[in-house]
Structures are given as C-alpha cells and as structure tokens.
Amino acid sequence: EVPDSPGVSLYRVSSNIPWNQGGARNLVAHVAQTPRLMLIDPDMVLAPGMLQTLLELSRKLAPGLVFRPALRHIATREFDHTSPNVHLMLRDDFKKVGGYDEDYCGHKGWSDVQLLRVMQRTCMLRQREDVWFWFHHGNKDVPDAQVNTLDRSVKHNKAIHIRKMDVLKKKGVTKFLATLGKQLRFPWSKVK
Q1: Burial class (CB in 10 A: 0-12, 13-18, 19+), 115
Q2: Distance in angstroms (rounded) separating the CA atoms of residues 123 and 112
Q3: What is the CA radius of gyration of the chain?
Q4: Nearest to 42 by CA among 165, 150, 154, 166
Q5: Terminus-to-terminus CA distance in the chain, angstroms?
Q6: Positive or negative, the Cα torsion across 170, 152, 78, 85?
Q7: Which helix (H) or strand (E) holds 14?
Q8: 3-class DSSP assignment, residue 27
C-alpha cells in the first residue's frame, strides 16, 4: 500500500527486466510534470540537511547546465566519488542527450557511462561537493544494498558500449543519437 502524498505518482513496470534502471529513468522523464530531474541510483539517499541545498541548486539550472552531486559512503561518511548516474538537470536536456539507451537494459553496466559521455560533449557539467548523497553500495550491514541474484557480467554491454562510443567519437553526437532505439520498450502503467 502506498500512502497518499500530494504531487507524488507511482508507476509500475510490469515486465521483470534485469538491470532496467535506464528504462525506469526514461519513464520518469517521460511522465514528469516538472522541468527538473534529479537522477540517482536505488542505493542512494539524500544526506540529512541537503534537501534545501538541492532545491536551491535546482533553481540555478539553465539549459545545458548539469549539476553532479557528490557521494559519501554511508558507513564512513567520507567523500567517495561522483557517480555517472547522479545528475540534477533539466528534463529538456535529458531528452536532448537521448536519455538512457535501452539497448543496455537486461544486462549490467555501461548505460550510465554512455549517457555521461554524451553529456560531456553537449552540456556543461559541474561537480558539486556542497550537496551529497549517502550511498551504501557494498555495505554488508544494509541487506537491500546487495544485488546478488542478478547476473553481474558486463561483457554483453561492454561490447555495445565500445561500438556506440566509436560512433560518438568518429561521427559525432547527431549520428550517435541516431543509433539509439525506441525508449520505453516495456509495458508500464500508472498505479497512483
């Protein structure tokens, strides 16, 4: 049961597609009624006290500008990295860069790196360490941080990535975007 919450909608992807985070993010961008998107991974949570900073940062967004908040490990509280999957950006910019390539869905890896490479060529990326998310990837103390039941091999997607990055490097963004297939290749519905 999902409690009522003003301004919150719930959507269900009815096909069980492994590693379909890119497809789910494309769905969010498709149905969003706001001009801004905050994209994160499922093993991340906004650190306490950061919501106001994030909202203020979102008001500074302009076309072509993407903020990339930092990640700190939930156990150590130490700065760890900036993920290729954490972006505060305008919805129109997400569409302009093609969103997540669903050719990668069903297998682990590389769709986030591909999106980042396209954004590096088309947007101004600004890393921000003044706003961060906690993440618990690999944290044995957080049971839902483990994804042991899915095939973690990246071999299939690495081959796709090499081929597509070759097009991006040799032929440019416009030709690369033409290689992207249809988005939302799965059944989905609005639940609430």
Answers
A1: buried
A2: 15
A3: 17
A4: 150
A5: 10
A6: positive
A7: none
A8: helix
Distance CA 160, CA 7 (A): 38
Residue 147 · residue 137 · CB < 8 Å? no
Closest CA to 29 of 92, 84, 88, 106: 92
Q: How many CB atoms lie within 10 A of CB 101?
A: 25
pLDDT in tens, 130-189: 888 877 655 555 555 556 677 889 999 999 999 999 999 999 999 999 999 899 999 999
* C-alpha 111 chain-centroid distance: 9
- Which pTM does this prediction carry? 0.88
- CB count in 10 Å sphere of residue 151: 12
Strand pairing of 11-13 and 44-46? unpaired
Q: What's the confidence (pLDDT) of residue 76?
A: 77
Per this entry, what is the length of the chain? 192
- Give the tokens for residue 71: 């990640």
Tokens of 13: 């992807």
> In sequence order, what DSSP letters do the residues of 168-190 get, joined into one string?
HHHH-HHHHHTT---S--S-EEE
Phi-psi domain of 38 (left: phi exceeds 0; alpha: psi -120 through 50; beta: other): beta
Bridge-based pairing state of the strands 65-73 and 79-81: antiparallel
Q: Give the three-state DSSP class for 153.
A: coil
